[in-house]
Design a protein that fits this description.
Elements: E1 7-8, E2 15-18, E3 25-28, E4 41-44, H1 48-62, E5 67-70, E6 75-80, H2 84-94, E7 103-105, H3 109-116, H4 156-162, E8 167-172, H5 181-184, E9 189-193, H6 198-207, E10 211-212, H7 227-234, E11 240-243, E12 254-257, E13 264-267, H8 273-276, E14 286-287, E15 314-318, H9 327-332, E16 339-344, E17 398-399, H10 404-407, E18 423-427, E19 436-442, H11 447-463, E20 468-472, H12 481-491, E21 494-496
Parallel strand pairs: 2-11, 3-17, 5-11, 7-9, 8-12, 13-14, 15-20, 15-21, 16-19, 16-20
Antiparallel strand pairs: 1-2, 3-4, 5-6, 6-10, 7-10, 8-9, 12-13, 18-19
Helix pairs in contact: 1-6
Amino acid sequence: MAAKSSREAPGGLTRILPVDPSRLGTFTFSRNAESELDEWGLELSDGLDASHLCKGAESLRKSDVPVAFPTETVYGLGADATRSSAVQGIYKAKQRPSDNPLIVHICSLNQLRDLLKPMEAPSSSTPRQRNDDTSQPQQTITQKADTCDPIPDIYKPLIQSFWPGPLTILLRNPENSRLAPEVTAGLPTFGARMPKSLLALALIKLANVPIAAPSANASTKPSPTTADHVFHDLNGRLDIILDGGPCEVGVESTVVDGLSNPPSILRPGGISIEQLRECPGWENVIIGYKDGSEKDSQPRAPGMKYRHYSPKATVILHEAGSLPPTIIDIQRNLGPNRSIGIIRTSTWEQKLVLPDTDQPTPSISKSKENLPPTETTTTYPTPPTSHHKPANTPIPSTTQSTTPNFKSLLQTLQPHQLPAPAQPSLLNLPPPSSAITIFTITLGSNPSHIARNLFSALRDLDLKNVDVIFVEGVGDQNEFAAAIMNRLRKAAEVRVF
Protein backbone atom coordinates (compact mmCIF):
# COMPACT_ATOMS: atom_id res chain seq x y z
CA MET A 1 0.00 0.00 0.00
CA ALA A 2 1.50 3.32 -0.98
CA ALA A 3 1.78 5.94 1.70
CA LYS A 4 -0.92 8.55 1.80
CA SER A 5 0.09 12.02 0.75
CA SER A 6 0.90 14.50 3.48
CA ARG A 7 -1.67 16.98 4.73
CA GLU A 8 -1.03 20.61 5.59
CA ALA A 9 -2.92 23.19 7.56
CA PRO A 10 -4.13 26.26 5.70
CA GLY A 11 -1.03 28.36 5.16
CA GLY A 12 1.24 25.32 5.43
CA LEU A 13 1.66 25.52 9.21
CA THR A 14 1.56 21.91 10.35
CA ARG A 15 2.12 18.89 8.12
CA ILE A 16 0.73 15.43 8.83
CA LEU A 17 3.15 12.91 7.27
CA PRO A 18 1.87 9.30 7.18
CA VAL A 19 4.40 6.60 8.03
CA ASP A 20 3.60 2.90 7.65
CA PRO A 21 6.19 1.11 9.86
CA SER A 22 5.82 -2.09 7.85
CA ARG A 23 7.37 -0.28 4.86
CA LEU A 24 10.33 1.38 6.54
CA GLY A 25 12.90 -1.30 5.71
CA THR A 26 14.78 -4.11 7.45
CA PHE A 27 15.05 -4.24 11.22
CA THR A 28 17.80 -6.55 12.52
CA PHE A 29 17.68 -7.75 16.12
CA SER A 30 20.01 -10.01 18.08
CA ARG A 31 18.96 -13.57 18.89
CA ASN A 32 20.79 -13.34 22.22
CA ALA A 33 18.35 -12.55 25.01
CA GLU A 34 21.06 -10.87 27.10
CA SER A 35 22.12 -8.44 24.36
CA GLU A 36 18.89 -8.11 22.40
CA LEU A 37 18.04 -4.71 23.83
CA ASP A 38 21.62 -3.40 23.78
CA GLU A 39 21.65 -2.46 20.11
CA TRP A 40 19.88 -3.29 16.84
CA GLY A 41 20.10 -2.43 13.18
CA LEU A 42 17.91 -0.64 10.64
CA GLU A 43 18.34 -0.50 6.87
CA LEU A 44 15.85 1.93 5.38
CA SER A 45 14.06 1.17 2.14
CA ASP A 46 13.30 3.66 -0.60
CA GLY A 47 9.84 5.11 -0.42
CA LEU A 48 7.67 7.87 0.97
CA ASP A 49 7.28 6.27 4.41
CA ALA A 50 11.03 6.20 5.06
CA SER A 51 11.35 9.69 3.58
CA HIS A 52 8.73 11.05 5.96
CA LEU A 53 10.45 9.40 8.92
CA CYS A 54 13.81 10.90 7.89
CA LYS A 55 12.23 14.36 7.77
CA GLY A 56 11.04 13.89 11.32
CA ALA A 57 14.46 12.68 12.48
CA GLU A 58 16.24 15.59 10.79
CA SER A 59 13.88 18.05 12.45
CA LEU A 60 14.60 16.49 15.84
CA ARG A 61 18.34 16.89 15.28
CA LYS A 62 18.32 20.44 13.95
CA SER A 63 15.13 22.26 14.94
CA ASP A 64 13.83 23.66 18.20
CA VAL A 65 10.25 22.95 17.11
CA PRO A 66 9.08 19.58 18.49
CA VAL A 67 7.91 16.68 16.33
CA ALA A 68 4.76 14.68 17.14
CA PHE A 69 5.01 10.91 16.69
CA PRO A 70 3.06 7.81 17.73
CA THR A 71 4.06 5.36 20.42
CA GLU A 72 2.15 2.30 21.57
CA THR A 73 0.61 4.35 24.41
CA VAL A 74 -0.31 7.81 23.05
CA TYR A 75 1.18 10.27 20.57
CA GLY A 76 4.28 11.98 21.94
CA LEU A 77 5.64 15.48 21.42
CA GLY A 78 9.35 14.91 20.93
CA ALA A 79 12.51 16.99 21.10
CA ASP A 80 16.23 16.31 21.45
CA ALA A 81 16.58 15.68 25.19
CA THR A 82 20.15 17.00 25.20
CA ARG A 83 19.38 20.51 23.85
CA SER A 84 17.78 23.08 26.14
CA SER A 85 16.34 25.16 23.31
CA ALA A 86 14.67 22.09 21.81
CA VAL A 87 13.17 20.94 25.11
CA GLN A 88 11.90 24.44 25.80
CA GLY A 89 9.97 24.11 22.53
CA ILE A 90 7.92 21.29 24.11
CA TYR A 91 6.83 23.44 27.04
CA LYS A 92 5.99 26.30 24.69
CA ALA A 93 3.94 24.17 22.28
CA LYS A 94 1.97 22.42 25.03
CA GLN A 95 1.82 25.43 27.36
CA ARG A 96 3.02 22.98 29.98
CA PRO A 97 4.07 24.03 33.51
CA SER A 98 7.86 24.12 33.77
CA ASP A 99 7.95 22.05 36.98
CA ASN A 100 6.40 19.03 35.28
CA PRO A 101 9.26 16.66 34.27
CA LEU A 102 9.50 14.90 30.92
CA ILE A 103 10.10 11.24 30.06
CA VAL A 104 13.15 10.40 27.96
CA HIS A 105 12.57 7.87 25.17
CA ILE A 106 15.48 5.68 24.11
CA CYS A 107 15.90 3.07 21.39
CA SER A 108 18.50 0.81 23.02
CA LEU A 109 20.05 0.03 26.38
CA ASN A 110 23.40 1.33 25.17
CA GLN A 111 21.78 4.70 24.56
CA LEU A 112 20.41 4.64 28.11
CA ARG A 113 23.81 3.68 29.53
CA ASP A 114 25.34 6.71 27.85
CA LEU A 115 22.82 8.93 29.62
CA LEU A 116 23.69 7.39 32.99
CA LYS A 117 27.41 8.16 32.62
CA PRO A 118 28.62 11.69 33.39
CA MET A 119 30.11 13.70 30.57
CA GLU A 120 33.78 14.55 30.76
CA ALA A 121 34.08 17.83 32.63
CA PRO A 122 35.63 20.58 30.48
CA SER A 123 39.05 21.86 31.43
CA SER A 124 39.31 25.38 32.83
CA SER A 125 40.97 26.57 29.63
CA THR A 126 38.40 25.04 27.32
CA PRO A 127 34.95 26.61 27.19
CA ARG A 128 32.20 24.07 27.51
CA GLN A 129 29.91 23.63 24.50
CA ARG A 130 26.27 24.27 25.29
CA ASN A 131 23.83 21.44 24.70
CA ASP A 132 21.81 23.67 22.40
CA ASP A 133 24.70 24.27 19.97
CA THR A 134 23.81 21.99 17.08
CA SER A 135 26.80 23.13 15.01
CA GLN A 136 29.19 21.24 17.25
CA PRO A 137 29.44 17.49 17.83
CA GLN A 138 28.09 16.22 21.11
CA GLN A 139 30.61 15.85 23.89
CA THR A 140 32.06 12.44 24.39
CA ILE A 141 31.25 10.36 27.42
CA THR A 142 34.02 9.82 29.92
CA GLN A 143 35.65 6.50 29.19
CA LYS A 144 36.44 4.71 32.43
CA ALA A 145 37.83 1.33 33.12
CA ASP A 146 34.50 0.44 34.64
CA THR A 147 32.74 -2.74 33.66
CA CYS A 148 29.79 -2.11 35.97
CA ASP A 149 26.45 -1.62 34.28
CA PRO A 150 25.09 1.82 35.25
CA ILE A 151 21.52 0.52 34.95
CA PRO A 152 20.42 -0.36 38.52
CA ASP A 153 19.91 -4.08 39.10
CA ILE A 154 16.43 -3.48 40.54
CA TYR A 155 15.18 -2.54 37.08
CA LYS A 156 16.68 -5.40 35.09
CA PRO A 157 13.81 -7.87 35.69
CA LEU A 158 11.36 -5.18 34.55
CA ILE A 159 13.42 -4.35 31.47
CA GLN A 160 13.63 -8.00 30.52
CA SER A 161 9.90 -8.49 31.01
CA PHE A 162 8.36 -5.26 29.73
CA TRP A 163 10.76 -3.42 27.39
CA PRO A 164 10.09 -2.34 24.77
CA GLY A 165 6.77 -1.39 26.33
CA PRO A 166 4.61 1.00 28.35
CA LEU A 167 6.88 1.19 31.40
CA THR A 168 8.95 4.18 32.56
CA ILE A 169 11.70 3.72 35.16
CA LEU A 170 13.04 6.46 37.43
CA LEU A 171 16.83 6.87 37.33
CA ARG A 172 19.40 9.11 39.01
CA ASN A 173 20.62 11.90 36.77
CA PRO A 174 24.44 11.96 36.87
CA GLU A 175 26.54 15.05 37.45
CA ASN A 176 27.53 16.73 34.19
CA SER A 177 24.51 15.07 32.65
CA ARG A 178 23.95 15.07 28.92
CA LEU A 179 20.28 15.86 29.50
CA ALA A 180 19.03 19.42 29.23
CA PRO A 181 18.04 20.66 32.69
CA GLU A 182 14.48 21.34 31.50
CA VAL A 183 13.94 17.59 31.11
CA THR A 184 14.18 16.91 34.83
CA ALA A 185 12.46 20.15 35.97
CA GLY A 186 15.12 20.52 38.66
CA LEU A 187 14.79 17.00 40.05
CA PRO A 188 17.83 14.76 40.68
CA THR A 189 16.15 11.98 38.70
CA PHE A 190 14.69 11.39 35.25
CA GLY A 191 12.27 8.89 33.77
CA ALA A 192 13.23 6.72 30.80
CA ARG A 193 11.46 4.18 28.66
CA MET A 194 11.87 2.21 25.45
CA PRO A 195 8.60 2.46 23.46
CA LYS A 196 7.01 -0.62 21.92
CA SER A 197 6.63 0.98 18.50
CA LEU A 198 8.75 0.27 15.44
CA LEU A 199 8.05 3.76 14.17
CA ALA A 200 9.11 5.44 17.41
CA LEU A 201 12.21 3.28 17.80
CA ALA A 202 13.26 3.92 14.20
CA LEU A 203 12.73 7.66 14.66
CA ILE A 204 14.93 7.76 17.78
CA LYS A 205 17.62 5.69 16.09
CA LEU A 206 17.69 7.89 12.99
CA ALA A 207 17.76 11.07 15.06
CA ASN A 208 20.63 9.52 17.05
CA VAL A 209 19.62 11.39 20.20
CA PRO A 210 17.42 10.52 23.17
CA ILE A 211 13.98 12.06 22.77
CA ALA A 212 12.15 13.88 25.56
CA ALA A 213 8.44 13.49 24.92
CA PRO A 214 5.25 14.10 26.89
CA SER A 215 1.88 13.43 25.31
CA ALA A 216 1.26 15.58 22.22
CA ASN A 217 -1.81 17.43 23.46
CA ALA A 218 -2.46 20.88 24.81
CA SER A 219 -1.75 20.83 28.53
CA THR A 220 -4.64 19.43 30.68
CA LYS A 221 -6.55 18.07 27.64
CA PRO A 222 -7.21 14.37 26.91
CA SER A 223 -4.14 12.62 25.56
CA PRO A 224 -4.04 12.09 21.78
CA THR A 225 -4.25 8.60 20.30
CA THR A 226 -4.39 9.67 16.63
CA ALA A 227 -2.58 12.21 14.48
CA ASP A 228 -5.86 14.11 14.03
CA HIS A 229 -6.09 14.58 17.81
CA VAL A 230 -2.63 16.17 17.78
CA PHE A 231 -3.56 18.39 14.84
CA HIS A 232 -6.71 19.57 16.62
CA ASP A 233 -4.74 20.69 19.70
CA LEU A 234 -1.41 21.86 18.29
CA ASN A 235 -2.03 22.97 14.71
CA GLY A 236 0.23 25.94 14.05
CA ARG A 237 2.56 25.13 16.96
CA LEU A 238 4.37 22.27 15.16
CA ASP A 239 5.92 21.66 11.79
CA ILE A 240 5.53 17.87 11.56
CA ILE A 241 3.13 15.23 12.86
CA LEU A 242 4.14 11.68 11.93
CA ASP A 243 0.94 9.66 11.44
CA GLY A 244 1.32 6.00 12.32
CA GLY A 245 -2.38 5.32 12.87
CA PRO A 246 -4.25 4.87 16.19
CA CYS A 247 -2.21 3.87 19.24
CA GLU A 248 -2.30 0.33 20.58
CA VAL A 249 -2.55 0.86 24.35
CA GLY A 250 -4.30 4.23 24.60
CA VAL A 251 -3.16 5.28 28.10
CA GLU A 252 0.29 6.48 29.09
CA SER A 253 3.07 4.33 30.48
CA THR A 254 3.30 3.10 34.05
CA VAL A 255 5.98 5.06 35.94
CA VAL A 256 7.87 3.21 38.68
CA ASP A 257 10.48 4.22 41.26
CA GLY A 258 12.88 1.42 42.10
CA LEU A 259 15.27 3.79 43.88
CA SER A 260 12.97 3.89 46.92
CA ASN A 261 12.46 1.06 49.39
CA PRO A 262 10.00 -0.47 48.90
CA PRO A 263 9.68 0.37 45.20
CA SER A 264 6.60 2.33 44.22
CA ILE A 265 4.30 3.14 41.32
CA LEU A 266 4.21 6.88 40.62
CA ARG A 267 1.67 6.68 37.80
CA PRO A 268 -0.53 3.75 36.74
CA GLY A 269 -0.49 2.87 33.06
CA GLY A 270 -0.06 0.06 30.56
CA ILE A 271 1.67 -2.30 33.06
CA SER A 272 -0.39 -3.28 36.11
CA ILE A 273 0.71 -3.65 39.72
CA GLU A 274 -0.03 -7.38 39.47
CA GLN A 275 2.37 -7.71 36.54
CA LEU A 276 5.07 -5.80 38.40
CA ARG A 277 4.73 -7.99 41.48
CA GLU A 278 5.57 -11.05 39.42
CA CYS A 279 9.12 -9.71 38.92
CA PRO A 280 11.97 -10.40 41.39
CA GLY A 281 12.49 -7.46 43.75
CA TRP A 282 9.05 -6.01 43.01
CA GLU A 283 6.88 -8.36 45.05
CA ASN A 284 6.13 -5.61 47.59
CA VAL A 285 5.75 -2.67 45.22
CA ILE A 286 3.40 -0.04 46.63
CA ILE A 287 1.14 2.63 45.16
CA GLY A 288 2.81 6.04 45.40
CA TYR A 289 0.26 8.19 43.59
CA LYS A 290 -3.11 9.77 44.22
CA ASP A 291 -5.99 9.86 41.77
CA GLY A 292 -6.48 13.57 42.42
CA SER A 293 -4.06 16.41 41.70
CA GLU A 294 -1.10 16.68 44.11
CA LYS A 295 -0.80 20.46 44.03
CA ASP A 296 1.30 21.03 47.16
CA SER A 297 4.46 19.26 46.01
CA GLN A 298 6.76 19.09 43.03
CA PRO A 299 5.76 16.13 40.86
CA ARG A 300 8.28 13.29 40.78
CA ALA A 301 6.75 12.01 37.56
CA PRO A 302 4.43 13.35 34.85
CA GLY A 303 0.71 13.30 35.60
CA MET A 304 1.02 13.61 39.39
CA LYS A 305 0.47 17.29 40.19
CA TYR A 306 -1.90 18.94 37.74
CA ARG A 307 -5.41 18.31 36.50
CA HIS A 308 -5.14 16.19 33.38
CA TYR A 309 -7.12 14.53 30.64
CA SER A 310 -10.02 17.01 30.79
CA PRO A 311 -12.28 17.90 27.86
CA LYS A 312 -14.13 21.22 27.68
CA ALA A 313 -17.36 19.62 28.85
CA THR A 314 -17.99 18.83 32.51
CA VAL A 315 -17.12 15.18 33.21
CA ILE A 316 -19.29 13.33 35.77
CA LEU A 317 -17.79 9.98 36.68
CA HIS A 318 -20.04 7.24 38.01
CA GLU A 319 -17.81 4.90 39.98
CA ALA A 320 -18.10 1.20 39.24
CA GLY A 321 -21.37 -0.22 40.51
CA SER A 322 -23.23 3.09 40.71
CA LEU A 323 -26.44 3.54 38.76
CA PRO A 324 -26.62 5.55 35.54
CA PRO A 325 -27.92 9.13 35.56
CA THR A 326 -31.63 9.80 35.65
CA ILE A 327 -33.26 12.44 33.51
CA ILE A 328 -33.38 14.70 36.57
CA ASP A 329 -29.60 14.35 36.92
CA ILE A 330 -29.21 15.27 33.28
CA GLN A 331 -31.53 18.28 33.48
CA ARG A 332 -29.54 19.60 36.44
CA ASN A 333 -26.35 19.63 34.36
CA LEU A 334 -27.65 20.85 31.01
CA GLY A 335 -26.09 23.95 29.54
CA PRO A 336 -26.98 26.20 26.64
CA ASN A 337 -26.32 23.49 24.03
CA ARG A 338 -28.92 21.18 25.61
CA SER A 339 -26.87 18.14 24.71
CA ILE A 340 -25.12 15.47 26.75
CA GLY A 341 -22.61 12.70 26.16
CA ILE A 342 -22.68 9.24 27.70
CA ILE A 343 -19.74 6.80 27.73
CA ARG A 344 -20.92 3.29 28.58
CA THR A 345 -18.71 0.34 29.48
CA SER A 346 -20.18 -2.93 30.74
CA THR A 347 -23.40 -2.61 32.76
CA TRP A 348 -25.41 0.47 31.84
CA GLU A 349 -28.29 -0.22 29.51
CA GLN A 350 -28.35 1.78 26.33
CA LYS A 351 -31.32 3.88 27.33
CA LEU A 352 -32.25 6.72 29.65
CA VAL A 353 -35.17 6.73 32.04
CA LEU A 354 -37.60 9.60 32.54
CA PRO A 355 -38.42 10.33 36.19
CA ASP A 356 -41.83 10.29 37.73
CA THR A 357 -42.82 13.95 38.03
CA ASP A 358 -44.03 13.37 41.60
CA GLN A 359 -40.54 12.40 42.73
CA PRO A 360 -38.39 15.05 44.46
CA THR A 361 -35.34 16.21 42.55
CA PRO A 362 -32.27 14.43 43.95
CA SER A 363 -28.78 15.89 43.98
CA ILE A 364 -26.42 14.23 41.55
CA SER A 365 -24.12 12.87 44.19
CA LYS A 366 -27.02 11.00 45.82
CA SER A 367 -29.05 9.96 42.82
CA LYS A 368 -29.43 6.22 43.13
CA GLU A 369 -32.82 5.46 41.69
CA ASN A 370 -33.97 4.80 38.14
CA LEU A 371 -37.48 6.18 38.16
CA PRO A 372 -40.46 4.82 36.17
CA PRO A 373 -40.00 5.36 32.44
CA THR A 374 -42.34 7.24 30.14
CA GLU A 375 -39.95 7.36 27.20
CA THR A 376 -36.53 5.97 26.37
CA THR A 377 -33.81 6.73 23.89
CA THR A 378 -31.37 4.39 22.22
CA THR A 379 -28.37 5.17 20.07
CA TYR A 380 -27.02 2.95 17.33
CA PRO A 381 -23.31 3.36 16.66
CA THR A 382 -22.09 3.04 13.09
CA PRO A 383 -19.89 0.04 12.28
CA PRO A 384 -16.24 0.60 13.20
CA THR A 385 -13.87 1.28 10.35
CA SER A 386 -10.19 0.54 9.96
CA HIS A 387 -7.80 3.46 10.07
CA HIS A 388 -4.51 4.18 8.31
CA LYS A 389 -3.73 0.75 6.90
CA PRO A 390 -5.63 -2.43 6.08
CA ALA A 391 -5.45 -5.63 8.08
CA ASN A 392 -3.34 -7.35 5.41
CA THR A 393 -0.48 -4.86 5.71
CA PRO A 394 2.76 -6.80 5.04
CA ILE A 395 5.15 -7.31 7.95
CA PRO A 396 8.57 -5.72 7.34
CA SER A 397 11.60 -7.83 6.55
CA THR A 398 13.37 -8.40 9.85
CA THR A 399 15.86 -10.73 11.41
CA GLN A 400 13.36 -11.87 13.98
CA SER A 401 14.55 -12.55 17.48
CA THR A 402 13.64 -15.74 19.28
CA THR A 403 13.44 -13.81 22.56
CA PRO A 404 10.25 -12.04 23.63
CA ASN A 405 11.35 -8.40 23.71
CA PHE A 406 11.62 -7.24 20.10
CA LYS A 407 9.59 -10.14 18.73
CA SER A 408 6.54 -8.58 20.38
CA LEU A 409 7.04 -5.48 18.23
CA LEU A 410 5.53 -7.31 15.29
CA GLN A 411 2.19 -7.26 17.13
CA THR A 412 2.20 -3.46 16.91
CA LEU A 413 1.82 -3.65 13.13
CA GLN A 414 -1.75 -4.85 13.47
CA PRO A 415 -4.25 -2.05 12.76
CA HIS A 416 -6.30 -0.74 15.65
CA GLN A 417 -9.83 0.55 15.42
CA LEU A 418 -11.28 3.64 17.00
CA PRO A 419 -14.72 3.50 18.59
CA ALA A 420 -17.60 4.32 16.31
CA PRO A 421 -18.36 8.05 16.30
CA ALA A 422 -21.06 9.13 18.71
CA GLN A 423 -24.50 9.18 17.10
CA PRO A 424 -27.19 11.61 18.24
CA SER A 425 -30.64 10.75 19.53
CA LEU A 426 -33.36 13.18 20.53
CA LEU A 427 -35.18 12.81 23.84
CA ASN A 428 -38.44 14.73 23.87
CA LEU A 429 -39.36 15.91 27.33
CA PRO A 430 -42.85 16.89 28.56
CA PRO A 431 -43.75 20.59 28.17
CA PRO A 432 -42.48 23.15 28.95
CA SER A 433 -39.08 21.48 28.49
CA SER A 434 -37.55 21.13 25.04
CA ALA A 435 -35.75 18.16 23.53
CA ILE A 436 -32.32 17.01 24.65
CA THR A 437 -29.71 15.69 22.21
CA ILE A 438 -27.95 12.61 23.57
CA PHE A 439 -24.66 11.27 22.16
CA THR A 440 -23.75 7.77 23.30
CA ILE A 441 -20.45 5.91 22.88
CA THR A 442 -20.24 2.29 23.98
CA LEU A 443 -16.74 1.03 24.83
CA GLY A 444 -17.84 -2.42 25.98
CA SER A 445 -16.44 -4.56 28.78
CA ASN A 446 -13.02 -5.45 27.32
CA PRO A 447 -10.49 -3.57 29.50
CA SER A 448 -7.86 -3.16 26.79
CA HIS A 449 -10.50 -1.82 24.40
CA ILE A 450 -11.71 0.68 27.03
CA ALA A 451 -8.15 1.87 27.70
CA ARG A 452 -7.36 2.18 24.00
CA ASN A 453 -10.46 4.22 23.19
CA LEU A 454 -11.19 6.26 26.32
CA PHE A 455 -9.36 9.44 25.31
CA SER A 456 -10.74 9.22 21.78
CA ALA A 457 -14.28 8.98 23.17
CA LEU A 458 -13.82 12.04 25.39
CA ARG A 459 -12.48 14.00 22.44
CA ASP A 460 -15.28 12.89 20.13
CA LEU A 461 -17.94 14.05 22.57
CA ASP A 462 -16.12 17.33 23.12
CA LEU A 463 -16.25 17.98 19.38
CA LYS A 464 -20.04 17.54 19.58
CA ASN A 465 -20.13 20.51 22.00
CA VAL A 466 -21.99 18.58 24.68
CA ASP A 467 -22.60 20.33 28.00
CA VAL A 468 -21.74 17.36 30.17
CA ILE A 469 -20.27 13.85 29.78
CA PHE A 470 -21.50 11.03 32.03
CA VAL A 471 -19.00 8.16 32.22
CA GLU A 472 -19.57 4.65 33.53
CA GLY A 473 -16.52 3.63 35.55
CA VAL A 474 -14.92 0.19 35.64
CA GLY A 475 -14.15 -2.14 38.53
CA ASP A 476 -10.70 -3.10 39.74
CA GLN A 477 -10.89 -6.64 38.43
CA ASN A 478 -8.67 -6.10 35.38
CA GLU A 479 -5.12 -5.00 34.67
CA PHE A 480 -6.04 -1.67 33.06
CA ALA A 481 -8.58 -0.59 35.69
CA ALA A 482 -6.14 1.45 37.78
CA ALA A 483 -4.94 3.43 34.77
CA ILE A 484 -8.44 3.94 33.37
CA MET A 485 -9.93 5.14 36.64
CA ASN A 486 -6.89 7.29 37.48
CA ARG A 487 -7.37 9.20 34.21
CA LEU A 488 -11.12 9.52 34.69
CA ARG A 489 -10.82 10.72 38.29
CA LYS A 490 -8.34 13.39 37.24
CA ALA A 491 -10.68 14.49 34.44
CA ALA A 492 -13.92 14.44 36.46
CA GLU A 493 -15.42 17.45 38.20
CA VAL A 494 -18.07 15.31 39.94
CA ARG A 495 -17.89 11.71 41.13
CA VAL A 496 -20.99 9.63 41.83
CA PHE A 497 -20.71 6.63 44.18
